Amino acid sequence: MIGPTRLRKKRREIFLSLLPVLVILAVFRVYPIATALWRSFTNWDGLYRSDWIGLRNYVRFVTDGSFWMILRNTLFLLVNVPLQVFIGLIVALLLYERVAGWRFYRSVIYIPQIISAVIIGFLFKIFFGYNGPVNAVLKAIGLESLAIEWFGNSYTALAVIVFAIVWFSIGWQAIVLLGGMSAIPPSVFEAAVIDGANYWQRAFRIVIPMLVRVMEFAVIASGVWTLTQLFPFLYAMTRGGPGYETSTLDYMIYLKSFGLGFSSDFGLASAIAVMLLVLVLALTMIEMRVANRADDWS
Asked: Would you give per-residue pLDDT tens digits along the chain (298 residues)?
């Protein structure tokens, strides 16, 4: 049994060992969030003016005609999450089964992740430009009616952005899921092969059920990333336009803070940031609750 003196010493050692982490979290996480929350209730201009105005920033943004369009765009772009997880799962399964050329595919599948997102955005802007390669191919094969101005319409522009995000994220998804597959005991597959299980039976009855937790992590991480890290893609491809047709909450934070010249409104940008934080937390809790219920049912 540990004595009182030894117990206090042990607690002090634990606290001191955690202190650096707590300080880092307080400086780089708690303080910025608390500051943004406080500033969201003011008319802060980034320099001198910082008067308390209550909920006026929130009301002004919600009642703005562009709010629902921006929220629609943000939620629409979440479509990429199931797409990238599904395609990443297929790629991971093929790599795990060591199809022909799997070593080459494994070495190149992660390349998009090491390329700057801004560069990828500019490349897709060139490819899907009206005089770009995509329309040139469509015209060459007799599909002139499909050769359109992809970034001139909000829906086609958002579809191109989703395509770019999925292409960018497949490598990360495949690596994460492949890591989960490597934790599955080889004896499980050996027994399945002996029992006569084919490729699809091994995939859907062994691999996928044993990757539920890994896939849950992939979905949550990808969802949070989509809500908070799309700025370089939007900036490079559409600049949020035409108008606010392809803007999202995270891009609006930039526009209200730095994108409108001398009319920047940091108080409103802080309010949008707080709303984005609430949306991220809500979606994360919903995804975790759905995953936990799926585990209970299984």
From this structure: 556 777 777 788 888 888 888 899 888 889 999 999 999 999 888 777 788 998 999 999 999 878 889 989 988 999 899 999 999 988 888 887 777 777 777 778 888 888 899 999 999 999 999 899 999 999 999 888 888 999 988 889 999 999 999 999 998 999 899 888 888 887 777 787 777 777 777 777 788 888 888 888 898 889 889 998 899 999 999 988 888 889 999 999 988 888 665 567 889 999 999 999 998 988 888 877 776 765 655 5
**Where are the domains positioned within the chain?**
65-119+153-297
State how far the Cα of 158 lies from the Cα of 77, in Å rounded to an integer.
Answer: 7
- Give the phi and the psi of residue 173 in degrees, each rounded to 5: -60, -45
Q: Cβ contacts of residue 153 below 8 Å, gap of 6+?
A: 245
- Give 48's DSSP letter: S
Phi/psi for 52 (5° steps) reads -70, 125
Euclidean distance between CA atoms 153 and 176, whole angstroms = 35
Question: Among 248, 218, 236, 64, which residue's Cα sits nearest to residue 154?
Answer: 248
| Class (C level, CATH) for 65-119+153-297 | mainly alpha
